[in-house]
Amino acid sequence: MGLRTPEQYKQSLRDGRSVYYRGEKVADVTKHPIIGLAVEHACLDYRMAEDPKYRELAVIANNGDPYSRYYYLPRNAEDLRKRSELIAASTREGATLVVLIKEIGTDALYALHIIGERMAAAGKAEYRERIHKYHQYCRDNDLAIAVAQTDVKGDRSLGPTAQEHPDYYVRVVEERPDGVIVRGAKVHTSVSTNTDEVIVLPTRAMRPEDKAYAIAFALPIDTPGLNIFATPHGGTVKDAFEHPLSARHKMMETLPVFDDVFVPKERIFLNGEVEFAGLLALTFVRFHRFTAVSYKLPLMEMMAGAAYAIAEANGIIRAAHVRDKLTHLAAYHSTVRGLIEHAAAACTIEDGLAVPNTLLTNVAKYHFAHNYHQAVQIVQDLAGGLLVTAPAAEDLTSEATREYVLKYMGGAKGFDAEKRLRLLNLISDLTASDYGGYQEVLAVHAEGGFEAEKLQAYREYDFKTVADYARKVAGV
Amino acid sequence: MGLRTPEQYKQSLRDGRSVYYRGEKVADVTKHPIIGLAVEHACLDYRMAEDPKYRELAVIANNGDPYSRYYYLPRNAEDLRKRSELIAASTREGATLVVLIKEIGTDALYALHIIGERMAAAGKAEYRERIHKYHQYCRDNDLAIAVAQTDVKGDRSLGPTAQEHPDYYVRVVEERPDGVIVRGAKVHTSVSTNTDEVIVLPTRAMRPEDKAYAIAFALPIDTPGLNIFATPHGGTVKDAFEHPLSARHKMMETLPVFDDVFVPKERIFLNGEVEFAGLLALTFVRFHRFTAVSYKLPLMEMMAGAAYAIAEANGIIRAAHVRDKLTHLAAYHSTVRGLIEHAAAACTIEDGLAVPNTLLTNVAKYHFAHNYHQAVQIVQDLAGGLLVTAPAAEDLTSEATREYVLKYMGGAKGFDAEKRLRLLNLISDLTASDYGGYQEVLAVHAEGGFEAEKLQAYREYDFKTVADYARKVAGV
Amino acid sequence: MGLRTPEQYKQSLRDGRSVYYRGEKVADVTKHPIIGLAVEHACLDYRMAEDPKYRELAVIANNGDPYSRYYYLPRNAEDLRKRSELIAASTREGATLVVLIKEIGTDALYALHIIGERMAAAGKAEYRERIHKYHQYCRDNDLAIAVAQTDVKGDRSLGPTAQEHPDYYVRVVEERPDGVIVRGAKVHTSVSTNTDEVIVLPTRAMRPEDKAYAIAFALPIDTPGLNIFATPHGGTVKDAFEHPLSARHKMMETLPVFDDVFVPKERIFLNGEVEFAGLLALTFVRFHRFTAVSYKLPLMEMMAGAAYAIAEANGIIRAAHVRDKLTHLAAYHSTVRGLIEHAAAACTIEDGLAVPNTLLTNVAKYHFAHNYHQAVQIVQDLAGGLLVTAPAAEDLTSEATREYVLKYMGGAKGFDAEKRLRLLNLISDLTASDYGGYQEVLAVHAEGGFEAEKLQAYREYDFKTVADYARKVAGV
Amino acid sequence: MGLRTPEQYKQSLRDGRSVYYRGEKVADVTKHPIIGLAVEHACLDYRMAEDPKYRELAVIANNGDPYSRYYYLPRNAEDLRKRSELIAASTREGATLVVLIKEIGTDALYALHIIGERMAAAGKAEYRERIHKYHQYCRDNDLAIAVAQTDVKGDRSLGPTAQEHPDYYVRVVEERPDGVIVRGAKVHTSVSTNTDEVIVLPTRAMRPEDKAYAIAFALPIDTPGLNIFATPHGGTVKDAFEHPLSARHKMMETLPVFDDVFVPKERIFLNGEVEFAGLLALTFVRFHRFTAVSYKLPLMEMMAGAAYAIAEANGIIRAAHVRDKLTHLAAYHSTVRGLIEHAAAACTIEDGLAVPNTLLTNVAKYHFAHNYHQAVQIVQDLAGGLLVTAPAAEDLTSEATREYVLKYMGGAKGFDAEKRLRLLNLISDLTASDYGGYQEVLAVHAEGGFEAEKLQAYREYDFKTVADYARKVAGV
């Protein structure tokens, strides 16, 4: 096959999976008032493949069955560029919220491909074969995949074996002839309520004593013993006038718990090779930060665009300080976009795969993340206090209130009350709601946090060459 | 009398007032699921007056009937310091949310006192008398007062008379022998759903042609023709475990509409004296920004304190970057506190009232406001992604989920899952929720916005002296 | 011919030119103690053309006489990339100081080429021909060219015709059959003490009444009536141990005064076509900011490299805050480099010439400029107070002092006193000397200043597309 | 006596002291072309005591012989405020350069007073007596005192005993019945070329094994074995038109080397009491950072004032971005001034002395230091590129050049070329010269550097109270 319809995707989620929301098991995620939103949002991916406007970008069709571009292994800069473009386009359709049901999973598959080659070169060819098969399986069945990487960690200053109990990092508790039994939990696992599969990766480099924790594998979501706890954050039913983004678009965050789950051999991609655990974690992140910056672009477009639109509606577009602030947003967006486009162009080919330039990717990600809150401040500044004091949707329809709202909420010529309130609600939803808080926390923490980004930039930057230059001029 | 009980306060709100929430008139604000929360929050003021711990700070008792300190006219630096302390203490009790039902109203009364003196000096003594009487009335009846200042403004680049319709600024539409009829609406009017009175002030300086807009007055909330539209922002019923601040504390923001409302003579404090409109607006702001910075102190305490507590719980308190970030929060708080304390100490006495140093107040306010989003970023950074991915309250009580949450959500030694989640939920509520968004927008916009604060600092700073110094050294 | 030797270049400067230094006419610029340094620095350009290491980069040799790459018209992204690389390489040889004797001149020639085409299209083909001929003349004679653009401007809030006297902008005072007489002065004109030619461009858009000011032309430096006033800033003879950069490298800044100078027809490139004045000014800047960012790269390399080297020498390289600061410098450099490389890759072809992407160029320039002082702060922070308290060169050689200096100025293992002092002196010269001040002011002002860069970014950014996106999602 | 004349002060410096400048011993520091400038600058202190305008501020005269206020022990907030005012006033007279010949010395004396009390309380009363006597001696003879605190340190990641040689920190090499022999060197020792005395303090906390390094004492500068190496930074003879600050004002930085110097018993204030070394170092810094912020105030006045004056001269004072930038400078100055004034007001009384609030002092110092380079950027931005491209002093006097300079360097109405150039030269000297670099490095490093200031703020801030508040609201 190769391509599924949205309906086929939804049908595949009705498989008896153990998903819990607010302490209760969810009977059918597609019909849950909150998770159902996330399912609809995820359908965007399948819809775009059917949409003539996006088909060429979203589908690989050269020979044989057509399949989703996400499953295509990037071989050069152009492949990376198109992947980035597809990620941005689907996020743009998602009204600044990433779809993610294939993006992150294929980042993991790319990383596994590279690690598979490295392990083969080190004499362990069996992993490579499993990885290739698993990749084909996902591609040919057009599956949705979550990735679970971040262990719950307990005391974050301690390694896996020094914790109060041994399960703060996911580990193998039993080896069997046909597979392993794993135990533990992974936080911050996006979209696992509504994917077919979850790929589990180690979160960090491991030392020899951490052997049991050096484990990577994949499982169907409905595997016995795998329980998914969905977060309630942002989980209220919302009015679409007041929350034009988050009333329609939702991504679930979860805590998958592996309660002594059996993983069959062919689904194990690393098991005890501690020397490859850190490399796998890092290689995944190298791809995933590129993905992440790609899907932040529509968010920055929206900030600049919404700020411009509301400044017009408020009648302040010509004020000097307003232009200055809009320029700041434009430069913010252009800087991140320029860097990530250049990260694709300046990729390296490793084990046959195109890997985005790691230094530029990390610099782009850090620039995005570090300056996000300031951009929020600017957008809020230009919009005005009505972000949190505007009347309700019903005030525009109720007989008792409607005329007043229409009369008094108007803005500059051409911007009647409804138009202006729609723009204000967009910005309120984007920056001053639980969705706004979600985006702030993602900016800070998703794909690894400030310190991780800085550490990787430090490691990738060529200090030797520049220090030699300084020493030469100094005469040392 | 002089002091009311919380119950008396609540009773006074059941007066048939026209308050609308989501298009419907609210029968009894004290029993409304959302506004009722705001009423309870406001009761803090009356409770503190009864509380031995706060009585001395909250109540003036020297001679005659005791009355709320808010109604005391500050005569010196110490009076300002105590007022600031009281505002901070009540906001601290309000879990970072200001109470405001007397704070802002007395800021307006102080400003009216000064303008009353100035108008008397200009030959219009009647206003002074009205202001004094109104002040006594509010004080002796321990009333709660909202202040409506910001006109809806329409096109913000145009003045009152240049708008598409003449009502974008509140104005007098008819003069009567016994008073005036006013029309218009004022945005961003906090707490008017649950006060006894509203004071209405002009929002800016007026030109001769704006005579009808140079109007200040006070009215009971239940005055016919006065309709209050409450904003729905943040208006959902919340779980107190997940939202320890906002499930319990709420302040209403409103749009009061004056639909041809009659204001009797004795309640008119300015009417057509365009030359005093700007001075009144500005004088109010001079007091109100001092109030504002005072009630931001507990918010900054909370940010530093919550960041410290979660860093401990996460086991990262000794990391160098964590200390650096905590120091930033400490310096942020200390800078603003130091400046506002010094603004009280360096007050000027004008027409018998102590006015906080305007330059220092504006600098303090700007420092708070301009750096708020960055502080949010730091707190979110130290807390971790669980701010938006943590399990629900019910996951800690449901049999099916409880044991997993307890096992996997633990932190550093001494911080079990529940403790850690409580701290995380506090920070999530504080920074990554609609309440967090509310605080961000308040930081940017409340009490006048960045550009207004900067303009006033520019005007207050003594450029002449420093430019003379530069010229002297330059030999010019 | 096509390529000159350094000696030929120097010989060409002994032409009786009117160069004034500290009020006195300079007999021979090549032998002047300060300007002579600048001449030697400029020779780098001619030396690199002879140096096998750089020959391929610096010289175009495909067919016919070889000539300097600077004179090559860029036709595609690769041409721009190589030009950028050459500019960076020569600045690197110049120890962070740009050479500039062909860089800026060819920026002007490229702009003239484009304006020549536009004027030809508008029916004035004669300019295009003159420009082509002048370009060939400079290329074939391997000339050094200065560019004079910034008028002295008088009151900067007023246009050319509103000034206290009419000569605050360079203008035509007389039209003759064979040419024009020009009068005025241009500030910030780099390298004109030691070039063969100067190209004069308008500094801004002109209105119809500014016709006499819409003038562009080129002249040999020794033209009668052209007087060059050199600035004394940084003009002291320095010890090379204490000032490893500025004792050896120097660029002259000048005020060329046109005291009723005759310009022959064939050297006039614009004369009264007010509608092209702004376009010419802007087109020059589009090329020149790309040049500017290219020559800032070695400066940022030096900052990161010197900071790293001194942190090692001081024994603090492993401290967390030091890594953090070094990462900041690495990200600073990488961001600007990534953006400017991408500006070349994303060029547009206009009238046959490759023009670097203007938005990215301006964003890169602004990022460099706006963050420069902070980078200086970091480098100074890591180096230590010895930047301004270290002993003198003579203290290392004098018998009376040498042993003490050697004993006490040592650093971490492997860094003896001399090595460490050399690194410190490098950084002191780079950041805490008149050279350091020069670089700071260049960062702020060269190629047009913050506000100009921001304005151009504002104009180039596609606000329409992003605002449409926001409106669509808002449902407007 | 109690008060000396400037002439007496100068005479006291002709004592055969071993001061080296560029490898050569200086015969008479008062006549040296560079150090002589510093002597004249220092005379400001003695001149102010004679000047009726400053006499009341500069001299304590209540009973007995009048003496310099610096020697007065502060007993309350008002004493600290006056001391701060005196320091600011003398620095203002010094055209932004601190005088320092009594400021820093008395900071050390205050700290010694407190440590003396503490040691007396611990059973070592002899130190207290010596300290009192030494204080009286300095006061009664109106002496100038340098303070040497910062050891040369070698590898800054290692303590005193772990270095490559044992003399990287000043230490006692021999105990004698009547005193000790000390060896070592101290960097960054200001003004010791032209003081009567030097007080030597330990630079950090010491461990038991560092006993020999726990040493504090005072010596006359002309003590045998004490060699002063003056730094050459900024040591060129300058034109007063081009360098209105630094041509007239100079402070020497030195490396005093203690080449087995004998210190008599009565001049030893700490010797081996390792437990008091850190406390002494810290107590000195608590006073000295207060002093430092006091003398930074005129620098910030100058930046705001010079920026304002040049913006006027350039004709840009009404531009929105200019006002914004001036406001930034005003807020910068006002913030630091407000904090340091409040640090005096909020002092604590320790062992009878008023100690400025340490948290506020550190926050003020950090705010000053961390934002200094940005302020420089703004001042340079408003001034323009002429800071480094303006003509020379001689160009204004030479017949050949004068008329051109006068014609073309004019600015806005009322600002002729000379006036404008004087303002530009002031700013160039202040920010874009070796003096500008000196001020930048001082901002970063003087009185202890960023990390030291942040560490002390971290320690002083009351995290416990705020964390308790957070925990209470969180329900933990």
Describe the secondary structure blueprint for this structure.
The structure is a homotetramer of 476-residue chains.
Chain A: H1 6-12, E1 18-21, E2 24-25, H2 35-50, H3 52-58, E3 59-60, E4 67-68, H4 77-93, H5 103-121, H6 125-140, E5 145-148, E6 171-176, E7 179-185, E8 189-190, E9 197-200, E10 215-220, E11 226-230, E12 253-264, E13 268-271, H7 274-314, H8 320-345, E14 348-350, E15 353-355, H9 358-383, H10 386-389, H11 402-408, H12 417-431, H13 434-445, H14 449-460, H15 463-474
Parallel strand pairs in A: 1-11, 5-9
Antiparallel strand pairs in A: 1-2, 3-4, 6-7, 7-12, 8-12, 9-10, 10-13, 11-12, 14-15
Helix pairs in contact in A: 1-2, 4-7, 5-6, 5-7, 7-8, 7-9, 7-12, 8-9, 9-12, 9-14, 12-13
Question: What would you say this structure looks like, in words?
Answer:
The structure is a homotetramer of 476-residue chains. Chain A is of the alpha+beta class and 476 residues long. Helices cover 50% and strands 14% of the residues of chain A. Chain A contains 15 helices and 15 strands. In chain A, strands 1, 2, 6, 7, 8, 11 and 12 form a seven-stranded mixed beta sheet that branches. Chain A has a four-stranded mixed beta sheet with strand order 5-9-10-13. In chain A, strand 6 and strand 7 (179-185) form a beta hairpin. The mean pLDDT of chain A is 97. The interface between C and D is large, with 89 and 89 residues.
